[in-house]
C-alpha cells in the first residue's frame, strides 16, 4: 500500500476543519471519513499481482546510441488499471522516460517504450517492473513488483570504422586484386609473367623459362590464413584517461579496426584480455563473425586496479599461440611495468612469435613540452620532456629485442596499428 500526495492534501484539509471546531467529535469524524476514503480507494484499485507483464526490444546497442526497450502490460482483472509503471534501470542507462502513467480498461493491454542511452560500456540490467495501481480517488495505491529481467549489452563504439575503406584499398593492392601487381616480396606464389628490367633475378623461374623459351619470373602475394593473437592489457595502466577516454577504450577501437581488416585479408584473429587472469577470450571464431564476437566479448571489460601479472600473461600467450604467429599486445609503455615485468620474459616470446606492442600516447605531453610561457609552464615542460624521453628509451629497448612498437595518440592509434599490419603483409613477414 502507498499513500499519494492527494491523501496528504486531504489530511491537511481535515486538520484545518478540526482546528476550526476544536472538538473531539470533529476529530473522529474527519479521521473516520479520511480512513474510509482511503480504504475504499484501496478496494477499488486494480490488483497488481494478477497483471501479466512481458518485455521486448533491443538487447545490444553501441555506446553513444539509443536502444529501445518495451514493456507490455495486460490487465486480466475486472477493474480498470490506473497505474504508474517504472522499470528499475541503473542510472548509467539513462532510461527515458523513467516512469510512465498507464490507464487500462479491464482486460486491456498496452505497451510502454523507453529509450536507453547509456554512457558506459557493459551490461545494463533491469530485473523488476514496479507498478503502483491508484484508486479512483487517487488517495491510495496498491504497489508491487514483477520479476521480468531484461539485459542490454552496451558495445564499444567502432569509431575508427571511417578508416576501413582506405585500409581495404591498400590491402587490395597488396593482395593483387587490382590489375597492377606489386613487385614487393611475399610468401605465397601468385603467377608467372615475363621478365622486365628491374625484376629481382632471384624470382626467375628457370624451368618455366626453359619450357616457354623466354625468361619468366614468379610474382608473389602476401600469404593468407596467418594467425594474429591480440592481447588486451586490462591492468591498472589501462584505466588512465588520455584525451578524455580510457586507454582501454582506445585499445578496443584499434582492435576492432585491425580485426575487420585482417579478417578481410583472410587471416585468423584471436583475442585474450588479461591482467592477473584471463578476463575474456575469443579463439577460433569464424571470419564472418569474428568482429561481432570481439565486440561482444569486450563490452563488459573494465580496467582492474591491479598490476598486470606479465609472467602469467606470457604463459597464457604461449599456451594459446602454439605455432608462430603475430602477437599484438595493447598496453602502456610504462617504464616500471616494461622493464621489471615484460622485458625479462620477451626472449621466449620473441623466439617463438612476431611481437608487436601498441600503446596509447598522450598528446598532452607534447603540448606541455612545447610550452615556454612562465616559470610554471617551464617546470611542466621539463617534466613532459622527461616523460617523453623515458617513453622513447623504452621503445628503443623493445626494438632492440626485436619487438615492433606502435605508439600513437588515441585518435591515430587504430590507423597506425592497421598501417603496421599492412607493412608486415607487404614485406612478407606475416
Features:
12 helices, 430 residues, Immunoglobulin-like, 2 domains, Rossmann fold, single chain, 20 strands, alpha/beta
Textual characterization of the structure:
The protein is an alpha/beta fold and 430 residues long. It folds into two domains: 1-155, Immunoglobulin-like; 227-427, Rossmann fold (3-Layer(aba) Sandwich). Helix content is 37%, strand content 29%. It is built from twelve helices and 20 strands. It has helices spanning 5-21, 24-44, 164-174, 206-212, 247-264, 290-298, 310-320, 335-342, 346-352, 363-370, 375-400, 413-427; strands spanning 2-3, 52-57, 60-62, 67-74, 81-87, 95-96, 99-104, 109-116, 122-134, 140-155, 188-194, 216-221, 227-233, 241-242, 245-246, 268-274, 278-282, 326-330, 354-360, 404-408. The strands form five sheets. Strands 1, 3, 5, 7, 9 and 10 form a six-stranded mixed beta sheet that branches. Strands 17-16-13-18-19-20 form a six-stranded mixed beta sheet, with helices on both faces. It has a four-stranded antiparallel beta sheet with strand order 2-4-8-6, with no helix packed on it. A hairpin with a 2-residue loop joins strand 14 and strand 15. Helix 1 (5-21) runs antiparallel to helix 2 and helix 10 (363-370) crosses helix 11 (375-400). The longest helix has 26 residues, at 375-400. It is elongated and about 120 Å long. The chain starts with a strand and ends with a helix. Mean pLDDT is 87; it is low at 177-185.
Amino acid at each position: 500500500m502507498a499513500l499519494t500526495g492527494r491523501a496528504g492534501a486531504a489530511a491537511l484539509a481535515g486538520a484545518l476543519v478540526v482546528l476550526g471546531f476544536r472538538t473531539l467529535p470533529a476529530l473522529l469524524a474527519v479521521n473516520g471519513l479520511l480512513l474510509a476514503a482511503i480504504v475504499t480507494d484501496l478496494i477499488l484499485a486494480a490488483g497488481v499481482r494478477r497483471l501479466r507483464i512481458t518485455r521486448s526490444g533491443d538487447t545490444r546497442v553501441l555506446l553513444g546510441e539509443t536502444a529501445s526497450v518495451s514493456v507490455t502490460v495486460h490487465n486480466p482483472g475486472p477493474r480498470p488499471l490506473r497505474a504508474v509503471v517504472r522499470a528499475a534501470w541503473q542510472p548509467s542507462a539513462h532510461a527515458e522516460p523513467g516512469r510512465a502513467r498507464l490507464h487500462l480498461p479491464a482486460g486491456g493491454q498496452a505497451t510502454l517504450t523507453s529509450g536507453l542511452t547509456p554512457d558506459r560500456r557493459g551490461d545494463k540490467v533491469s530485473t523488476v517492473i514496479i507498478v503502483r495501481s491508484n484508486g479512483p480517488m487517487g488517495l491510495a495505491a496498491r504497489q508491487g513488483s514483477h520479476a521480468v529481467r531484461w539485459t542490454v549489452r552496451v558495445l564499444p563504439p567502432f569509431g575508427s570504422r571511417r578508416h576501413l575503406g582506405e585500409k581495404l584499398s591498400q590491402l587490395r593492392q597488396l593482395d593483387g586484386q587490382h590489375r597492377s601487381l606489386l613487385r614487393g616480396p611475399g610468401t605465397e606464389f601468385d603467377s608467372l609473367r615475363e621478365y622486365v628490367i628491374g625484376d629481382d633475378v632471384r624470382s626467375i623461374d628457370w624451368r618455366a623459362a626453359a619450357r616457354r623459351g623466354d625468361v619468366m619470373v614468379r610474382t608473389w602475394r602476401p600469404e593468407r590464413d596467418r594467425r594474429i593473437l591480440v592481447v588486451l592489457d586490462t591492468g591498472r595502466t589501462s584505466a588512465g584517461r588520455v584525451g578524455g577516454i580510457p586507454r582501454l577504450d582506445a585499445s578496443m577501437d584499434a582492435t576492432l579496426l585491425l580485426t575487420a581488416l585482417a579478417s578481410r585479408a583472410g587471416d585468423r584473429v584471436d583475442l585474450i584480455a588479461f591482467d592477473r587472469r584471463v578476463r575474456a577470450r575469443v579463439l577460433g571464431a569464424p571470419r564472418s563473425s569474428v568482429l561481432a564476437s570481439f565486440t561482444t566479448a569486450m563490452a563488459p571489460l573494465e580496467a582492474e586496479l591491479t598490476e598486470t601479472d606479465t609472467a602469467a600473461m606470457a604463459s597464457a600467450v604461449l599456451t594459446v599461440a602454439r605455432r608462430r604467429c603475430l602477437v599484438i599486445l595493447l598496453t602502456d609503455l610504462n617504464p616500471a611495468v616494461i622493464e621489471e615485468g615484460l622485458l625479462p620474459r620477451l626472449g621466449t616470446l620473441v623466439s617463438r612469435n612476431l611481437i608487436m606492442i601498441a600503446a596509447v600516447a598522450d598528446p598532452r605531453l607534447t603540448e606541455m613540452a612545447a610550452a615556454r610561457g612562465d616559470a610554471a609552464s617551464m617546470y611542466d615542460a621539463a617534466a613532459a620532456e622527461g616523460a617523453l624521453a623515458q617513453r622513447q628509451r623504452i621503445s628503443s629497448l623493445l626494438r632492440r629485442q626485436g619487438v615492433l612498437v606502435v605508439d600513437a595518440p588515441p585518435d591515430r592509434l587504430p590507423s597506425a596499428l592497421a598501417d603496421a599490419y599492412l607493412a608486415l603483409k607487404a614485406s612478407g613477414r606475416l
